[in-house]
Structure formats: structure tokens, C-alpha cells
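Input (structure):
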């Protein structure tokens, strides 16, 4: 725990107020952080023992302040396995949020649509996930200070937070899909055959993040609300190649809806 204590001390020195909620922003979704009032920005590289984000369009810093009347700490850019970070490093900031005292974490991501009823730009409330990475952030000696050796994942995506998100979407006039997210390592996009297999497994969307963060949050008793933006249809759903540029373009075009939804959810917490 010594590493966490040192990281925590560095964060607390910079934060004006303790955060109530944590946010993690996915690919192309970083502009949400620009709406935070009286922001305090802390690059990951200035926090002892924190890994640094290298993914395109991930700024790689904490932004703390007020959003929709709530005190938040936001990850403007997350860490991914395809960058070479081990699972424990990816969830390090989630555990820091727990130690800072947040009540829940709101995860967002850019995802590929597997469900053929979805369209590019849709928002999907994650009801459950499939971990297809073959890894876990809890491998190795258990961190007893955070949670037990074996923990339940039945309600990792908190039902009460999902209900609040559905009500918030209705209030905003936003269509909110629901489904299962399958997490893969990347960085290559999936093949059409993999997407067909994932659909048979029951996945509605696919991405390269979120599952490790959710596992670690559930381990330490931190409720999770997670929302995917369907920034592209997955391989084979449409007859065109995939690109990172499409992901960012869709996130920029439809990001206003997600920002509105997050603000409304925070108001109801």
C-alpha cells in the first residue's frame, strides 16, 4: 500500500476539495473534462507510481472540479493494455479514486457496434461484460486493503445507477440502448469472424477498455455506471474498413449527447 499512499498524498496536495464521483473518459470523449468548473489539472506523470497514457487523443491527466453541481475527479484519457500497461497499472487510478473517497465511478468508452440493430452514434448502457482479454487486474497477491481474494461480479454494473441513467436519458430525450460489452486487448480492430463469434456469445458492443476498471471497482466495493458510444459498426457489419479516424469523428459529432447525459446523471446522484 505504500505506493498508493504516496500517490494519494500527491493528489491530495493538489485537490481543492475531495471528489464525490470519479469519471473515466474514453477515446474521443475527452472534451467532457473541459466543462468542469474551476478545474485543477494534474498530469499522470506528476503522480508517483502512475503510468502515463500514450493512446491517441488521450490527454493523460486528472481534471478535478465541479460538474453539474458535483465535485468530480475525471480521467481525461485512460490507460490500455495495448499500450503495454499491465492490468494492475490500468486499474491503479480506479483504486486511487476509491482511496480519495468517491462514491461511484462513471466509465465511458468508444465501442464498435456488434448488435445489428445499433447505429453509429448510439449510446449503450452497459448491463454486463465479457472479459475476452484472458487477463485480470487481480492476478497475483490479493490486495486485502481493497477487497477479498474472490469477489462477486453479479452486480458490478450497479442496477440503481443504471436505473438513474435510463431516467436521465428519458429526461434529456436521448435514446439509450442497453447491452453487453465484450473487452479485448487490441490494438488491432477485430476480424469479421471474431465479431460473428462475439455476437453468438451475446455481446452487443466491443472495445479495448473498461472491463479491468470494472473488475477493480467491484473488488473494492465501488459502484460502476458505464456507457459506450457506438463510434463505428464492428468488422463485417458493414462493407467498409475500420479506422481510428472514424471513431474520433463520431465521438466529436455525437459527444454532446453523452455530455448531456452525464450531467443529468450527476444531478440525480
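Output (sequence):
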Amino acid at each position: 500500500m505504500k505506493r498508493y499512499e504516496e500517490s494519494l498524498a500527491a493528489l491530495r496536495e493538489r485537490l481543492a476539495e475531495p471528489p464525490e464521483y470519479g469519471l473515466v473518459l474514453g477515446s474521443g470523449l475527452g472534451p467532457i473534462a473541459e466543462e468542469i468548473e474551476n478545474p485543477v489539472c494534474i498530469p499522470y506523470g506528476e503522480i508517483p507510481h502512475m503510468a502515463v497514457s500514450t493512446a491517441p487523443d488521450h490527454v493523460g491527466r486528472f481534471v478535478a472540479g465541479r460538474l453539474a453541481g458535483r465535485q468530480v475527479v475525471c480521467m481525461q484519457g485512460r490507460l490500455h493494455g495495448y499500450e503495454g500497461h499491465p492490468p494492475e497499472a490500468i486499474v491503479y487510478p480506479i483504486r486511487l479514486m476509491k482511496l480519495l473517497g468517491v462514491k461511484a465511478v462513471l466509465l465511458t468508452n468508444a465501442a464498435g457496434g456488434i448488435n445489428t440493430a445499433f447505429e453509429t452514434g448510439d449510446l449503450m448502457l452497459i448491463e454486463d461484460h465479457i472479459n475476452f482479454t484472458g487477463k485480470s487486474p487481480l492476478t497475483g497477491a490479493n490486495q486485502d486493503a481493497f477487497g477479498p481474494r474472490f469477489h462477486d461480479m453479479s452486480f458490478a454494473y450497479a442496477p440503481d445507477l443504471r436505473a438513474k441513467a435510463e431516467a436521465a436519458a428519458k429526461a434529456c430525450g436521448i435514446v439509450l440502448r442497453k447491452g453487453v460489452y465484450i473487452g479485448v486487448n487490441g490494438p488491432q480492430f477485430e476480424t469479421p469472424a471474431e465479431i460473428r463469434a462475439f455476437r453468438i456469445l451475446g455481446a452487443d458492443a466491443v472495445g479495448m477498455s473498461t472491463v479491468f476498471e470494472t473488475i477493480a471497482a467491484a473488488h473494492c466495493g465501488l459502484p460502476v455506471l458505464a456507457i459506450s458510444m457506438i463510434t463505428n459498426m464492428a468488422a463485417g457489419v458493414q462493407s467498409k474498413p475500420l479506422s481510428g479516424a472514424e471513431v474520433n469523428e463520431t465521438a466529436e459529432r455525437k459527444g454532446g449527447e453523452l455530455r448531456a447525459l452525464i450531467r443529468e446523471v450527476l444531478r440525480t446522484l
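Notes: The mean pLDDT is 91. The beta strands are 21-25, 37-43, 61-67, 70-76, 104-113, 123-131, 176-183, 205-207, 224-233.
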